[in-house]
Amino acid sequence: MERLHFLYNFLDLAGTFVFAISGAAAAKQRGLDLFGICAIAFMVACGGGIIRDLCIGAIPPAGLTNWHYLVAAIIATGMTIGLYPLVQRLNQPVIFFDALGLSLFAVTGAQKSLAYGHNAEVAVLLGITTAVGGGVLRDILLNRVPAILEKEIYASAALIGALIVVLGDHLKWLSSDWNSIIALIICFSLRLLALRYHWNLPVYSNEKTEQN
Amino acid sequence: MERLHFLYNFLDLAGTFVFAISGAAAAKQRGLDLFGICAIAFMVACGGGIIRDLCIGAIPPAGLTNWHYLVAAIIATGMTIGLYPLVQRLNQPVIFFDALGLSLFAVTGAQKSLAYGHNAEVAVLLGITTAVGGGVLRDILLNRVPAILEKEIYASAALIGALIVVLGDHLKWLSSDWNSIIALIICFSLRLLALRYHWNLPVYSNEKTEQN
Amino acid sequence: MERLHFLYNFLDLAGTFVFAISGAAAAKQRGLDLFGICAIAFMVACGGGIIRDLCIGAIPPAGLTNWHYLVAAIIATGMTIGLYPLVQRLNQPVIFFDALGLSLFAVTGAQKSLAYGHNAEVAVLLGITTAVGGGVLRDILLNRVPAILEKEIYASAALIGALIVVLGDHLKWLSSDWNSIIALIICFSLRLLALRYHWNLPVYSNEKTEQN
After folding, report:
1. C82 CA: distance to closest CA in chain A (Å)
2. Which helix (H) or strand (E) holds A127?
3. For chain B, what is the domain count?
4. CB–CB of A126/A110 below 8 Å?
5. In a domain, C20, yes or no
6. Residue A104 near residue A156, CB atoms below 8 Å
7. Residue B11 has what pLDDT?
8. Residues in B touching C74 (Cβ below 8 Å)
9. CB-based contact, A140 to chain B, within 8 Å
10. Residue C101 clears pLDDT 50, i.e. is over it
């Protein structure tokens, strides 16, 4: 329990940090001011988790009450502004950090929902929400159709990650820790492979189509 | 009580299903992928109800915890993709299903708020929210000004429907069931008549205008 | 306590009213219909507060349950439509009312969060949210990048106002009333000065930049 708790906290903070960097980079590229960059970074980092916490009744949301998250977002903003060449040198940093944050948040989101005693469906849906909620908020605020609805397997990877957490919790084949790590690795690999090989879910044109 | 409960559940599920079809059709026309279509369908179907449940303290929101809703959304997605010619043959299906879902949700939204012991104002406002919330979320996600703020009497029809539910609850002239059915029919007729005869609320140009 | 309560209620209603006017004016300029104008006015006026109330667990949100707010929003809508020449004569009314509402809401938002027993971070973040939440919702609904992320010191002024409330609460140098008034005046002056002299937060171009 102690170890799970530590792992959970660590994954959550790491996810916050990488999501904040991806948010800050997107906001900086868009030419927002210092506060705007910081706000988008915080929103991408904590937005999904805040929606999850409102839905599971964890009031006030951890993203608002725990200063670790705010500090992680501020440091990420400072790093993105001050060390931008470094952030840039990691080829396509936004996409890479985004994939890592996606996996981390899908797993921790599903876990927290289960820990609050909610059922498997809530855990899966809120795992996905935690993972993609911040990015959707970012795209809404930057006034574009959320990328997750159009691009390579993204939310679907979060779905897989959250499903593995919930299945592992029901079947109890492995300890929670190992189950989380496996869910994390599968979700992250799936996302990177989808990016590498341009895997996409089917799109339906407006002509007549058969049942898929 | 038993009968009301059954009616309430039935209306709620039917509303979910028709809203999901309207959402899936809009997302398909926009060229989103399979997950995107399913996500928009679920969002239109359950988004308004989830906002309502957060506001009345029904945690976790029924849209997340009750698998009926998710299944209804998935079936609606499958039908829209697989039987699109059928969905299309119903002339202007999106608009028709939208009007039906609007009426169903305004009524059930107001009822649920009253059932949780909140006052008449909360019931009316959340009736409207349940009815138009999903559509507003859809339009925000598809990056356009929500249609309900511009087009023929729409949210106003939901307002009338929710008002009738609240008035019926206070005056007790009829049983709850009959009151709901009347509210439903009036709201639905109002919306269809507005569509047929292009009834619009007044728009105020930027010149000097007198008090309306 | 009694006096603080009265001051708190008065500031909250005044803020609601001026925000509703700014919302109604923006919606009218955009050519929305009567319901659309009223909905945007209500959303700008109560949106930030509703998000705050969901986050601090004040269910149902005051914006929905207290008819004062709804009436204030409706009167503001009527005034904006009926007495538009008057509203217009106040040079740049939207911007002026917006600055007043911003200051009022940052202060009352931070105060309410503290009154519900939450910590300083929650109070500051939700003070900002109360202040800018409505305007962000307005810009999302009218389909543009929220102005607060780009323009002259705006959310930063709310941050200062909320910080002063929280600091005053911890240090107890002054009575709560005086502390609120000082926070209000500083936030409002800061915003007006920023508008007058075009103070902006730094924007980072996409070239290499040093740590700020």
Report:
1. 32
2. helix A120-141
3. 1
4. yes
5. yes
6. no
7. 67
8. none
9. yes
10. yes
Cβ–Cβ of B34/A210 closer than 8 Å?
Answer: no
CA angle (C142 as vertex; C137, C148 as ends), nearest 5: 50
The total of other beta-carbon atoms located within 10 Å of residue A76's CB is 28
Q: How far is CA C108 from the centre of its chain?
A: 9
Q: Quick one: pLDDT at residue A175?
A: 77
Whether A208 is in a domain gets the answer: no
Amino acid at A10: F
With beta carbons less than 8 A apart as the criterion, state whether C105 and C129 touch. Answer: no
> For residue A92, how many other CB atoms are within 10 A of its CB?
10
Q: Dihedral sign, CA of C42, C44, C49, C50?
A: positive
Interchain proximity A65–C203, CB inside 8 Å: no
C35 touches chain B (CB under 8 A): yes
Whether the pLDDT of residue C182 is over 70: the answer is: yes
Kindly report, residue by residue over A58-102, the tens digit of the pLDDT.
888 888 888 888 898 899 888 888 877 776 665 565 677 778 888
- Give the single-character DSSP code of B148: G
Check: CB of residue C161 under 8 Å from CB of residue C184: yes
Confidence check: pLDDT of A1 > 80: no
Residue B204 lies in a domain: no
Domain that holds residue C148: 2-197
Cα A16–A21–A24 angle (5° rounding)?
A: 120
Task: Specify burial of residue A97 (Cβ count, 10 A radius: 0-12, 13-18, 19+).
Answer: buried
A55 touches chain B (CB under 8 A): yes
Chain B residues touching residue A199 (CB < 8 angstroms): none
Return the residue matching tokens 């935690």: A130
| DSSP labels, C12-64 | HHHHHHHHHHHHHHHHHHTT-BHHHHHHHHHHHHHHHHHHHHHHHT-SS-HHH
Could you tell me the two tokens for B134?
């999903």
Residue with token string 């075009």: C198
Contacts C56 to A, Cβ<8 Å:
59-60
When pLDDT is averaged across residues B125-138 and rounded to a whole number, the result is 89
Q: Is B141 touching C (CB cutoff 8 A)? A: no
CA B163 to CA C101: how far, in whole Å?
Answer: 31
Q: Give the residue-averaged pLDDT of C77-99.
A: 72
Q: Do A54 and B50 touch (CB under 8 A)?
A: no
In a domain, C135, yes or no: yes
Q: Distance (Å, rounded) from C-alpha B73 to C-alpha C55? A: 28
Instruction: Indicate whether C60 pLDDT > 50.
Output: yes
Alpha-carbon dihedral C41, C46, C47, C52, rounded to 10 degrees: 170
- What tokens does A16 get? 């916050």
Q: What is the pTM of this model?
A: 0.85
Q: C212 contacts in A (CB within 8 Å)? A: 34, 81-82
ipTM above 0.85, yes or no: no
Q: How far apart are CA B195 and CA A105, in angstroms?
A: 44
Alpha carbon distances (Å) from C16 to C60, C104, C134: 18, 9, 10
Residue C85: closest CA among chain B residues belongs to which residue? B208
Residue C79, CB-side half-sphere exposure with 13 Å CA sphere: 18
